[in-house]
Specification:
The chain is of the alpha/beta class. The protein has two domains: about 230 residues, Type I PLP-dependent aspartate aminotransferase-like (Major domain) (Aspartate Aminotransferase, domain 2, 3-Layer(aba) Sandwich); about 120 residues, Alpha-Beta Complex (Aspartate Aminotransferase, domain 1), CATH 3.90.1150.10. It is built from eleven helices and 16 strands. Strands 1-9-8-5-4-2-3 form a seven-stranded mixed beta sheet, sandwiched between helices. A four-stranded antiparallel beta sheet has the order 12-14-16-15. It starts with 12 loop residues before the first helix and ends with a helix. The structure holds pyridoxal-5'-phosphate. Pyridoxal-5'-phosphate binds next to helix 3 and helix 4.
Length: about 375
């Protein structure tokens, strides 16, 4: 089977994790946690980074730190993995869903302003599949209405928007290091910010809001969370980060090859890289249009039969029971794209012959009728 997207473990992962085991520094305190936070902040060029147990906890912390809560509204796309939307619910706020662009599949920044009300407190762009939301437009609306911006840059780690890494443009950026992400720690996340106070507060809340007293006892002035990343996972993160630039280059080269081999096939819409953006192509994503001889779902079955794992685009969150009553702007493009979109295998370890095989199967299907 050619898998959709698997981890790449080729560096110092064993060495650094062994060091944690050999020295007993396996839990939430240890030098690798600090190092991973520093190295990650340096990589994305953010001032502060807080490592967390997963990406969802980073998103929850982000909303909490910015004081978003009951009665507030947060504008978010419906075409996303559910985590950022769940995090909005965790703090008692309401998600309000905005449509996506048909060419980039990410939040349509031109449609945000019409959803803003007196209850709106934040915008939560999600840079899905490695592409970037139009952050200039997002920041313009946020500044006009005094809103916070929390970027979910989980799927766009390494993507540049006008020379800046996604996740570092709004007030807070969140990342996940779940198994299929560009770099992985098994499970893990990171919150980044250029605001020192936000960074300090995020770290404090992630550590059970713990203060160590003079007699070495603990004191907790407010409700906190146990969201700190263990040293053993941070060790893996440090090793993964050492190879990140190579992984980005490979993903981009693989995307280029997919595009070259698929570009003249009728009925397929390819991913776009807008001017000013360096798209990391975390998952190479295409649309199967009506002119293609078989449907998207039929193609997924045919590919599976050929031992190729693909994945349909996200099911829109607003169609799920917990979110059916949320306010939205119609979400026409979201619905269309979610039915036509498919992610093709995108592991860093994907071989040239495998891309050729995948594309030649798609071509054969396209030319069969
Ligand atoms: C866009 C997005 N946000 C958040 C998450 C959640 O991260 P985690 O699984 O680490 O909690 C994921 C995927 O895992 C994701 O794809």
């Amino acid at each position: 089977m050619i898998p959709l997207c698997v981890p790449e473990i080729r560096g110092n992962e064993w060495k650094y994790i062994k060091e944690c085991l050999d020295t007993n520094w396996v839990s939430t305190v240890g030098s690798y946690v600090d190092k991973f936070e520093r190295d990650f902040a340096d990589f994305v060029k953010a001032k502060n980074a807080v490592a967390t147990v997963n990406g969802t906890s980073a998103l929850h912390l982000a909303l909490k730190v910015l004081g978003i809560g009951v009665g507030d509204e947060v504008i978010v796309p419906s075409l996303t993995f559910v985590a950022p939307v769940n995090a909005i619910k965790y703090v008692g706020a309401q998600p309000v869903f905005v449509d996506v662009c048909r060419d980039t599949f990410v939040m349509d920044a031109d449609k945000i302003e019409e959803l803003v009300t007196s209850k709106t407190k934040a915008i939560l762009p999600v840079h899905i599949y490695g592409n970037a939301v139009d952050m200039d437009k997002v920041m313009e609306v946020a500044n006009k209405y005094n809103l916070f911006v929390i970027e979910d840059a989980t799927e766009s780690l390494g993507t540049l928007y006008k020379g800046r890494y996604t996740g570092t443009i709004g007030h807070i950026g969140c990342f996940s290091f779940n198994g299929n992400k560009l770099i992985t720690t098994g499970a893990g996340g990171m919150l980044v910010t250029n605001d020192e106070e936000i960074g300090k507060r995020a770290k404090f809340l992630s550590t059970q809001a713990k203060i160590t007293l003079e007699n070495r006892g603990f004191y907790h002035p407010e409700v906190g969370y146990n969201y700190r990343m263990p040293n053993i996972l941070a060790a893996m993160g440090c090793a993964q980060l050492e190879n990140i630039n190579e992984y980005i280059e490979i993903k981009r080269n693989n995307a280029k090859m997919y595009t070259d081999l698929l570009k003249d096939i009728r009925g397929i819409t390819l991913p776009v890289e807008k001017e000013g953006i360096r798209h990391v192509h975390w998952l190479y994503s295409i649309l199967i249009e009506d002119e293609f001889p078989i449907s998207r779902d039929e193609l997924i079955k045919r590919m599976f039969h050929e031992q190729i794992e693909t994945r349909p685009f996200f099911t829109p969150v607003h169609t799920m029971p917990a979110y059916v009553n949320c306010r939205h702007d119609g979400l026409e493009t979201t619905m269309e794209v979610s039915l036509k979109g498919i992610n093709l295998p995108s592991s860093v370890s994907l071989k040239i012959e495998e891309i050729e095989k995948i594309c030649s199967i798609i071509r054969k299907i396209a030319e069969a009728k």
